[in-house]
UniProtKB/TrEMBL annotation:
Gene3D superfamilies found in the cross-reference section: Carbon-nitrogen hydrolase (3.60.110.10)
Domain of life per record: Bacteria
PANTHER family: ARYLACETONITRILASE, NITRILASE
InterPro entries noted in UniProt: C-N_Hydrolase (IPR003010), C-N_Hydrolase_sf (IPR036526), Nitrilase/CN_hydratase_CS (IPR000132), Nitrilases_CHs (IPR044149)
Protein name (record): Carbon-nitrogen hydrolase family protein
Provenance organism: Pseudoglutamicibacter cumminsii
Catalytic center residues: 45
Stated family: Belongs to the carbon-nitrogen hydrolase superfamily. Nitrilase family.
Keyword Hydrolase set for record: yes
Chain ranges of the CN hydrolase domain: 5-278
Keywords in alphabetical order: Hydrolase
Recorded GO MF terms: nitrilase activity
Keyword S-adenosyl-L-methionine attributed: no
Organism taxonomic ancestry: Bacteria, Bacillati, Actinomycetota, Actinomycetes, Micrococcales
């Protein structure tokens, strides 16, 4: 990273379970950020077609009524909707880190796409371990999803939500010498009194610690729970108590933990902007580099399996299958 750039963090409500409208809104935000001089924009977790809040509000049996609609409005990584977003990135000359639900065959994954300012799909990653009840909806990622990409303005990586609570995942990312990190979050408006680990205080702290610990700029976009979400997911008084309006706490942090953008109110939609000055990287790294002068590789090692796990089963017919003697060599 050689020159200062402007970064943008989205704080917005998805268009719930509506793929076409969600893509329209994402494109509008991409164009808005680019018109304000941003070189990179980050989107919240599963912004397209929205985070499945019903999984936290009732039983799996009750949530089954949303399953088909959610699956039908999930986005593939190679379909026409992704093409529209790639074209918007190219036309606007902006790098996009997009949070979306990725449909692979019949399975869903919590995905982040890296789209260059030329409209190239540089990479797609999946959340390594969906959190808690998210595992009733989403599959898991693999070691190939720990991605840091070269760009004209710096090395860019991303993680979703509580992946920022996983020490080994974080260290694997630091080891790739990230300079700009997108920390995507859905919203912090659930179980406000009962579960402090889900609170904005804890989760914004996780983004800030990531910045200071890894000495990287952190763009932390965050979703909004608005009236449309309440109408969609809360059909009882109890559910309206569990899921509150607002919950949006987008942030942008410097690599030494400074807050670089003035936050919006938790119920307000908009985009945060901040200048990322690479001088801060040099200053932060001079104090502590967890994979360099502040590490002890003679004591600690991290083993990473970066192989991709097949997302679908390769089925062979009996006629095509090889004999066991050809598959296994036994001495």
């Amino acid at each position: 990273m050689k020159e200062p750039i402007i970064a943008a963090a989205v704080q917005a409500e998805p268009v719930w379970l509506d793929l076409d409208a969600s893509v329209d809104k994402a494109i509008s935000l991409i164009r808005e950020a680019a018109s304000n001089g941003a070189s990179i924009i980050g989107f919240p977790e599963t912004f397209i077609p929205g985070y499945p809040w019903w999984i936290w509000l009732d039983s799996p049996a009750d949530g089954m009524r949303f399953v088909k609609e959610y699956s039908d409005n999930a986005m593939t990584s190679d379909g026409p909707h992704m093409e529209r977003i790639r074209e918007a990135a190219r036309e606007s000359n902006i790098y996009v880190v997009l949070g979306y639900t990725n449909k692979v065959g019949g399975s869903l994954y919590m995905a982040q796409a890296f789209i260059t300012s030329d409209g190239e799909l540089q990479g797609v990653r999946h959340k390594l371990k969906p959190t808690h009840v998210e595992r009733t909806v989403f599959g898991e990622g693999d070691g190939s999803d720990l991605q840091v990409h070269e760009t004209p303005f710096g090395r860019v990586g991303a993680l979703n939500c509580w992946e920022h609570f996983q020490p080994l995942t974080k260290y694997a990312m630091y080891a790739e010498h990230e300079e700009i990190h997108v920390a995507s979050w859905p919203a912090f408006s659930l179980y406000e009194e009962a579960a402090k680990a889900l609170s904005p205080e804890v989760n914004t702290a996780a983004s800030r610690v990531y910045a200071a610990e890894g000495q990287t700029f952190v763009i932390a976009p965050c979703g909004v729970v608005g009236e449309a979400a309440i109408e969609k997911f809360c059909d009882t008084d109890m559910k309206r108590e569990l899921l509150k309006r607002g919950g949006a706490h987008a942030r942008i942090y410097g690599p030494e933990g400074s807050e670089l953008a003035t936050p919006l109110a938790p119920d307000v939609e908009g985009i945060l902007y901040a200048e990322l000055d690479p001088t801060l990287l040099a200053v932060a790294k001079s104090a502590a580099d967890p994979v360099g002068h502040y590490s002890r590789p003679d004591i600690f090692r991290l083993l990473i399996n970066r192989n991709a796990t097949p997302k679908t089963v390769n089925v062979q017919t009996q006629a095509d299958a090889q004999p066991a003697a050809d598959l296994f060599e036994v001495e």
